[in-house]
Amino acid sequence: MELDRDSCVLLNDSYKMPVIGFGTYAPEKFPKNLAKEGTKVAIEVGYRHIDCAYIYDREVEVGRAIQEKITDGTVKREEIFYTGKLPSTFHPPERVRLALEKSLKDLQLDYMDLFLIHSPLGFKPGDNLFPVDENGKLIYANTDLRDTWKAMEKCKDAGLVRSIGVSNFNRRQLELILNMPGLKYKPVCNQVECHIYLNQSKLLEFCKSKDIVLVGYSVLGSSRGEEW
C-alpha cells in the first residue's frame, strides 16, 4: 500500500511539509549501507519526507539513495522534502553555515527543505560531536541560542535552506527565540519526542498558538538503543 503523497501541513513560511516522514537514525552497530537501501525503499513506497541529521553519520548514504531515485525517474528533487539538523557543537554563529554546507555536500543537494537546531544544548565546538572531559562527562558550551538562530536565518536568506526550525526545545527556549529583537523568521516547527507515554499536550497547545508545527519522533517507540 502506498502512502498518501498529498498529505501535507502548511508551515508558517508558506512551504508545505509532508505529514509522515521516514527517519534514518540507527545505532552504530547497523551497517551504513542499510540507510541507503532503506531510504530507497521508503521513496519507492511513497515516502517524500526524509529525515536525517549530521550526527547520525548517514547523510552520505541517504543522499546517494535520493540521487539514485531521482536518476531512475522515481521522483524529482522538488518532490522530496529533506530535513537536516545542526549539531550541538556547531551552535556558534560562525559555525552554523559550515555544518550546513558539509551536510549538503554529503547529500549531493543544493538546498535543504528544512534545517533544525537539533538540540538547545550546546557542546564544546570541535571535531568531536560529543566532547567529554577526563571523567567522561559531556563538555557544554553556552552559545546564546538567539545568535545561533540569526545564523540560521542567514542560511535561509542565502537560499541554502527553505525553512528553519528547532528540535527538542521546551516552551521557554522557544520563547527566547520568538521574543528576540529583530526576529526575521519564526521557527516553522519543533521536533520532539511524542507518543502515548509523553503526549506533549501543553507544548502542543503552545506551538499551535504561535503557528509552529509540533513534529513528533519515536511516535511508535524507538529502537535507537537497548536502554530505551
From TrEMBL:
Q: Which residues form the active site?
A: Y56 (proton donor)
- What residues does substrate bind to? H118
Q: Which residues form a coiled coil?
A: none
Listed Gene3D superfamilies: NADP-dependent oxidoreductase domain (3.20.20.100)
Annotated GO MF terms: oxidoreductase activity
Q: What are the residue positions of the site described as Lowers pKa of active site Tyr?
A: K85
Task: List the Pfam families.
Answer: Aldo_ket_red
Q: Which family does it belong to?
A: Belongs to the aldo/keto reductase family.
The protein in question is named: NADP-dependent oxidoreductase domain-containing protein
Top-down, what is the taxonomic lineage of the species of origin?
Eukaryota, Metazoa, Chordata, Craniata, Vertebrata
